[in-house]
């Protein structure tokens, strides 16, 4: 079995070195090919990576001339690997993901023999938040839910200061229920004054909170046809034969999980989550490097989420229009 890895890099030199070195240390080099994609890091760390791994024939460092974002950056590495090597599996993972499981590749091959899949997701444990991040969702988001989500992020961009304060207070007091409920009621009052209160929006938020609570225990169970978290994907030869790219190339960052989940559902590609495979996630290292303040990260995520939600909405509607009417 031949395995390829795609590691997207932006500025965090030490983290990428640690990630790639852990792969090289853990697995045999005979059937291993690693594409490190530098997304035009302004600190020159891409060239430093080329020098660092210059004696490792199984590592290729690709230097992008511009920051292509998450989807197109990873697609560049995915395309390089499938054009140059005959691979059975391509593992696309963040540079802040570390594999410590010595039989990780063996279990991938065993799982494919047992249950042929297009996309496989491991148990992803966030070391900072102490949570298991897979599965991301039990089902692909509906067009109605997506419309509400796009509206919510649009609302954030209209009143970013107020919305950042609201989100920060809710997060800070989330474990102090009386204070949390008071902040929640106060924010709803303020939204009414601003003319931004929506009962539908409130219902959606509650549904999302309930869904997240449900997911907290489901990471322990094998699942099929779920939406996988974006920090680590394992694509099989079934997927590689059918897809020239791994992620929908129109987004810059965020919501790739739901878009990939939708495309797999539409194209009848089998998606599997298996907790027998495990990785560690040191979360948002690159974003924190480039955007220093919480407010900057909040604005960046909200802006990109609004764009990505609208892109998925457009894709859903375009696909719906392409379906021929029943005779």
What is this structure's SSE topology?
Blueprint: E1 3-9, H1 13-26, E2 32-38, H2 45-52, E3 59-63, H3 69-84, E4 89-94, E5 97-98, H4 104-114, E6 119-126, E7 131-132, H5 143-158, H6 160-172, H7 177-194, H8 199-218, E8 223-224, E9 232-236, H9 237-242, H10 256-266, E10 271-281, H11 285-290, H12 294-322
Parallel strand pairs: 1-2, 1-4, 2-3, 6-10
Antiparallel strand pairs: 4-9, 5-10, 6-7, 6-9, 8-10
Structural key phrases:
327 residues; 12 helices; ten-stranded mixed β-sheet; globular; alpha/beta; 10 strands
The backbone outline, from C-alpha atoms, is: globular
The secondary structure category is alpha/beta
Oligomer: single chain
Largest beta-sheet details: 10 strands, mixed
């Amino acid at each position: 079995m031949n395995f390829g890895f795609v590691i997207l890099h932006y500025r965090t030199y030490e983290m990428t070195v640690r990630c790639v070195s852990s792969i090289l240390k853990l697995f045999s080099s005979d059937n291993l090919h690693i594409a490190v994609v530098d997304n035009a890091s302004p600190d020159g760390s891409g060239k430093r990576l080329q020098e660092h791994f210059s004696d490792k024939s199984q590592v290729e460092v690709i230097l992008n001339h511009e920051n292509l974002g998450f989807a197109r950056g990873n697609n560049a590495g995915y395309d390089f690997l499938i054009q140059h090597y005959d691979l059975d599996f391509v593992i696309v993972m963040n540079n802040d993901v570390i594999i410590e499981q010595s039989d990780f590749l063996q279990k991938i091959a065993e799982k494919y023999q047992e249950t042929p899949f297009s996309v496989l997701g491991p148990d992803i444990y966030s070391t900072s938040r102490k949570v298991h991040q897979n599965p991301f969702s039990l089902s692909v988001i509906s067009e109605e839910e997506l419309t509400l989500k796009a509206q919510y992020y649009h609302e954030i961009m209209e009143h970013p200061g107020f919305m950042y304060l609201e989100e920060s207070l809710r997060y800070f007091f989330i474990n102090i229920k009386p204070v949390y409920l008071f902040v929640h009621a106060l924010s709803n009052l303020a939204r009414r004054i601003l003319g931004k209160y929506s009962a539908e929006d409130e219902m959606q938020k509650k549904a999302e909170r309930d869904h997240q609570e449900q997911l907290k225990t489901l990471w322990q169970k094998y699942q099929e046809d779920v939406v996988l978290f974006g920090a680590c994907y394992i694509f099989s030869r079934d997927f590689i034969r059918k897809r020239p790219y791994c992620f929908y190339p129109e987004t810059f960052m965020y919501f790739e999980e739901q878009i990939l989940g939708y495309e797999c559902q539409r194209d009848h590609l089998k998606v599997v989550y298996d907790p027998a495979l495990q990785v560690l996630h040191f979360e948002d290292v690159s974003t924190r490097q480039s955007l220093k303040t919480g407010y900057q990260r909040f604005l960046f995520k909200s802006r990109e989420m609004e764009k990505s939600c609208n892109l998925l909405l457009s894709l859903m509607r375009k696909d719906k229009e392409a379906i021929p009417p029943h005779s």
